[in-house]
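Message: I would love a firmer grasp of how sequence relates to backbone shape in proteins. Thank you; the sequence and its tokens follow:
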Amino acid sequence: MDLNKHLEMEKGGTPGSNDATILVNESGVISFANQQVYDNFGYEHHELNGEKLLNLIPGANLQHSGAGEIIHQLGIHRDFSLFFRVNSFQLAKELYYLIVVHKVKDQSRINQQQSYPINELVDLIYALDESTIVAFTDEKGKIINFNKKFCEVSKYSATELIGKDHRIINSGHHSKEFMQELWRTISSGSVWRGEIKNKAKDGTHYWVDTTIVPFLNEKGNPYKYLAIRKEITEYKRVLEELGKFVNKMADFQFALDASSIVAITDQRGTIKYVNDQFCRISKFSKEELIGQDHRIINSGFHSKEFFNNLWKTISSGEVWKGEIKNKTKDNTYYWVDTTIVPFLDEFQKPYQYLAIRYEVTQRKLAEEEIQKMTGKIIDVQEEERKRISRELHDDIGQNLYSHLITINRLQTEMDHPLLDQMQDEATEIIESLRHLSWELRPSVLDDLGLFPAIRSLVAQFLEHHHIKVHFECYLNCRLNANKEITIYRIIQEALTNIRKYAYTEEAAVTIQEIEEEVRVEIKDQGKGFDIEKVTRGVGLFSMEERARICGGNLILHSREGKGTKVILKMPL
């Protein structure tokens, strides 16, 4: 959960449900504003996040505002008079200001003196008694008068309070110096303002926003004091919870910043925040990154469709995960394992995005090296197969043919059962040798190309295994040797799997050229299997590696009782 959402959930507990509340950091930047602020000042939701307070209330000087001091200012955007009260607090070693704004609806009352008749004064006292804790003490601090609100909040009766001093509700929270400063202020004839934590009769604690006004005699010395308090217990609780939350968020941010590359963008993708890790790996400064979008680090490696899919995912409110190749300021490349999380407003629309990345450059380089090595191994394997196939065909095969001719010549000169047996055995060995040579590397693939080689493979598959394969090819030109042998081997392996596991009498192979891509499909209507439950064997791994080496990818579909489909997609 982010800070804004937490504050919005808690805002019901801030002082006065109609109060406009603003949270500002030490630099004067607005971190949070509740809905009343947006209503009063005429802004749309989230527009104020990241704005300067001075753009909203010119002349507001937070550093020189006393705690709880009420200040009159003029708000802008919708010009109106306002009063605001400032309270500062420190969280995670950072200073924050909580500002409660009261709008003055009747401007004419600001500068006009009012004379109230007695009945209006009575009404004012009644309103004060209903909403505020009021108490009078003598010059020594003994309680001489108070209203019913004091009794309600403190849970003491009138007889228990009268004649006592305020130590009866002392919570022990404040230091001796705090109380001494309070008494020094009011005994000198000055008004004291601040927040005090008190203790009720039942032991529960409550907070009051307090103003103590000394009444002076003709010599200028206080003869009694008026204490006006407003209970802010819930407000302080929310503030405390906010402090815990901010501390927790600070811990999370520290851990995240120490381990991850972090960036926040607005709904248009413009960068609003980057951490030091982002700058370190990209080699751009924060000033160079803020206000830009991520095209500043685009390597050009990924397709337009890749980024279209990324944006389609996050703009719909879904989390996107994947690996991206980026480019630094000095044009070197790096890979990041990326998670992009959309932050949603009340209408479930993204208003900003959080991107968390982990550098995986070394792993990607290792994968590329492994892929290159695998490609070299496959090339060496194919060359060795080709060599052995030719030796079997040209050397051993020719010698066997010579022996068969010799046997045939002997049969013309003499008749013996052993000669007939030798002829049959030699013929069978030649056929097996020819089939083995074909399996290793069909010469027709090198001599005539992919289409004749697959057609011959399909014919032999029917002859040896009695499985009919429907073959269609729609290629307009020959491919390079590596791609042709890749397609041939994948079809060969897929048909071998059909023979072993599908329990079917028919299959289909289709090769077609679609725009700039070759698409190969091998399917059957056999037994099928659950992909999640079957262990991926060497054959499937070999097929995937061959596809990857040629820049393609292999897709496998299968369901129990519904057959299997293997699809190879590869650039021309």
Summary: Residues 380-441 form one domain. Residues 1-17, 106-118 have pLDDT under 50 and may be disordered.
